[in-house]
């Protein structure tokens, strides 16, 4: 288990410090790949603005001498209601890549979601220990998808996360302008056909590669097929509409991630936090709902809990920690999330995650109606 990060070794006092440290060390085109969104980056900016419009109504005169951030996600204990989101090609930012991030997540007691486009194979990532979920894109070759699922099961992964909002990669103008391509030392560790991602062109080589590999014909039949071919819990990532949430529940999906892909797919899509309450209501009590896109600290986690989420996924902050400090940097970022959440919970009068899910919020002066949480 990695020791707690030494502030002198990884001097992050906040998640924002990690962001600034990462930008300082990464090449400009790699920073743009990590930081950028699609189109005019309207949704990228809106994610943050929408979170900042959610105000919590704290409770007082409650004993918060022992605030506990521990809970469960997909039925397994976690130290805080958080998982590390799937982010592709992490060796772009640090030579230890996903394996370092997975070790840090294991040490912090939270799940790590390994991407299909990880720069290390799932078997090596899973060897880091801890709780690993495996994220899949629906590829043109269905056999390859099912083989990846089998490999994830054999490696000991605890869930399959199907990303459903990427029929192809959106126009990410920073990558297009940079003519971004993978350097030779970074490969998609789970796939064999990655040559296109290394070929510099007038546009984004990664967009060309995903267009070649991803199936734009993905439908609900893919969810049903996946459900029938795995014994693991199935999570759908990229749901924003209540109608889609209800359909997912009908098909027996175990959890949903309310996500606009961090502002990297449809530019102009609703901020994830604004879609959360309706999806929670549509999903009902039997299907866990998580949130990602724009989460930058413990107060954001508390906002998500108060609006009905069981937890959150964080992507860019973990990558910032990895870029600036390797495994220790990721661990420090996760420590900060836990410390900030504990602080926010106590100040809001919540001694447990369940109590946090009973908080009320207001946004734009109108009180939010939140689905009551049992217990």
From TrEMBL:
A Pfam family this chain is assigned to? FMN_dh
Query: What family does the database annotate?
Result: Belongs to the FMN-dependent alpha-hydroxy acid dehydrogenase family.
> InterPro entries recorded for this chain?
Aldolase_TIM, Alpha-hydoxy_acid_DH_FMN, FMN-dep_DH, FMN_HAD, FMN_hydac_DH_AS
Q: What is the recorded name of this protein? A: Alpha-hydroxy-acid oxidizing enzyme
In alphabetical order, the GO MF annotations are:
FMN binding; oxidoreductase activity, acting on CH-OH group of donors
Q: Which cofactor does it need?
A: FMN
Q: Where is the active site?
A: 261 (proton acceptor)
The UniProt record gives the binding positions of FMN as: 86-88, 115, 135, 163, 237, 259, 292-296, 315-316
Which of UniProt's keywords are assigned here? Flavoprotein, FMN, Oxidoreductase
Start and end residues of each FMN hydroxy acid dehydrogenase domain:
7-366
The family database entries (PANTHER family) matched by this protein are listed as: 2-HYDROXYACID OXIDASE 1, S -2-HYDROXY-ACID OXIDASE-RELATED
Q: Where does glyoxylate bind?
A: 137, 172, 261, 264
Name the lineage.
Bacteria, Bacillati, Actinomycetota, Actinomycetes, Micromonosporales
């Amino acid at each position: 288990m990695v020791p707690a990060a030494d502030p002198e070794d990884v001097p992050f006092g906040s998640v924002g410090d990690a962001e600034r440290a990462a930008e300082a060390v990464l090449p400009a085109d790699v920073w743009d790949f990590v930081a950028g969104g699609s189109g005019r980056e309207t949704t990228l900016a809106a994610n943050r603005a929408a979170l900042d419009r959610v105000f919590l109504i704290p409770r007082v005169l409650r004993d918060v001498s022992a605030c506990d951030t521990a809970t469960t996600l997909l039925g397994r204990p976690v130290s805080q209601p958080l998982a590390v989101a799937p982010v592709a090609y992490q060796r772009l930012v640090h030579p230890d890549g996903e394996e370092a991030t997975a070790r840090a997540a294991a040490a912090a007691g939270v799940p790590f979601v390994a991407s299909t486009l990880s720069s290390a194979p799932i078997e090596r990532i899973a060897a880091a220990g801890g709780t690993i979920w495996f994220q899949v894109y629906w590829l043109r070759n269905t056999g390859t998808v099912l083989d990846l699922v089998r490999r994830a099961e054999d490696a000991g992964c605890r869930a399959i996360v199907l990303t459903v909002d990427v029929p192809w990669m959106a126009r990410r103008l920073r990558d297009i302008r940079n003519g971004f391509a993978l350097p030779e030392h970074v490969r998609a560790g789970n796939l064999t056909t990655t040559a296109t991602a290394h070929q510099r062109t007038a546009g984004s080589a990664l967009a060309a590669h995903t267009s070649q590999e991803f199936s734009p014909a993905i439908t609900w039949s893919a969810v049903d097929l996946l459900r029938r071919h795995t014994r693991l819990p199935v999570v759908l990532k990229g749901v924003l509409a209540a109608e889609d949430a209800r359909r997912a529940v009908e098909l027996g999906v175990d959890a949903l991630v309310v996500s606009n892909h961090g502002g990297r797919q449809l530019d102009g899509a609703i901020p994830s936090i604004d879609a959360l309450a309706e999806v929670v209501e549509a999903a009902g009590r039997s299907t866990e709902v998580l949130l990602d896109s724009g989460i930058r600290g413990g107060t954001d986690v508390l906002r998500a809990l108060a609006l009905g989420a069981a937890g959150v996924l964080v992507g860019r902050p973990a990558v910032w920690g990895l870029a600036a400090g390797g495994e220790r940097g990721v661990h420090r970022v996760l420590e900060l999330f836990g410390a900030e959440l504990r602080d926010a919970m106590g100040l809001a009068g919540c001694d447990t995650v369940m109590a946090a899910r009973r908080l009320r919020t207001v946004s734009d002066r109108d009180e939010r109606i939140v689905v009551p949480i049992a217990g």
